[in-house]
């Protein structure tokens, strides 16, 4: 199979979908790997690194899209990239379709088979291809929130850890999964007073057992959420209902109960965001203000630390990439129901129920797509 990897074109996105290590593995398995010239530079990989791994360097994205059986990326295909996808071609990348009707329309029209990293599952109910980037974004969230809290950035002027005689910042994390846990650990490590809200009692039991001394937990009822958000210097949004649009848990009206200059970091923005006032921003222009509250809503936070993120994502995607290349998508998804959970689009049909529900589009059962 020919595996193609274009350079990412989303603003300030420096990650790359195929590492030299993954390229070498695919070549060892008898596949051809086409990398767009310069695709790895932002993550610290030169074209020479890929050539040494046995890959071929392509002149531009058009060449990669035209010649490849499977396109492997990081971010959802941008409008220009979507025009280059074709029927029968496999796309393996993050998609986040639920809040993105335009992308969904274009992928359906292309006839391609699109497998989304963020809905591939594992045996324990986790999301193995989302987890590494959630670890990164979770660890980045308090760092970006602390920056947002600085006076020059419109924030409240509060230091995370306080100083002797002056109390720390109060940080509330909504959603105690992978993002939330990593965010809470880092915020607590910076000296902030941290509370994690979640709706899953087993998850809160786990957090309390493991991190009980470092941060607290509260059940994410509307009442508890409103009370804690009003007291917070920083609120980090980290909820997820896999595939679905994020539930809106903090309304615009609630902003007026918050402390002026408090910071919202909505990591869940890639699924539409969990604050009514969230809208996606970029690394170039990451923050904006609504009713005196500063919002940081970058939808590709891990791109800021592209080297770490690319290596972490590559570790997780490589076994799936090799299975897809060795067996073809149908056999790979037949053999692995967790990979089949990643199938979002096939031959003009949507194949993920949560996405279909969010967008009001009929869904073809993934099992039927395997037989189509
Ligand atoms: N902006 C960015 O660059 C990035 C964004 N993300 C996003 O961050 C979000 C969180 O991802 P993960 O932590 O990996 O998900 P996860 O599945 O590990 O955790 C989500 C948590 O939210 C909880 N939850 C669900 N509904 C809730 C509600 N109504 N109230 C309170 N808690 C609720 C769940 O019980 C779960 O513990 C996702 O939208 C993901 O796509 C992840 C990586 C990068
Ligand atoms: C998960 C995701 O959207 C990202 O890493 O950019
Ligand atoms: Mg994203």
From TrEMBL:
Its EC number is 1.4.1.1. It holds the Pfam family AlaDh_PNT_N. InterPro entries: Ala_DH, Ala_DH/PNT_CS2, AlaDH/PNT_N, AlaDH/PNT_NAD(H)-bd, NAD(P)-bd_dom_sf. PROSITE patterns: ALADH_PNT_2. One of its GO terms (cellular component) is plasma membrane. It catalyses: L-alanine + NAD(+) + H2O = pyruvate + NH4(+) + NADH + H(+). The keyword Nucleotide-binding applies. NAD(+) binds at residues 134, 198, 203, 239-240, 267-270, 298-301. Residues 149-297 form the Alanine dehydrogenase/pyridine nucleotide transhydrogenase NAD(H)-binding domain. The keyword Oxidoreductase applies. The active site is at residues 96, 270. Residues 4-137 form the Alanine dehydrogenase/pyridine nucleotide transhydrogenase N-terminal domain. Keywords: NAD, Nucleotide-binding, Oxidoreductase. One of its GO terms (molecular function) is nucleotide binding. Substrate binds at residues 15, 75. Belongs to the AlaDH/PNT family. This is Alanine dehydrogenase. The lineage of its organism: Bacteria, Pseudomonadati, Pseudomonadota, Alphaproteobacteria, Rhodobacterales.
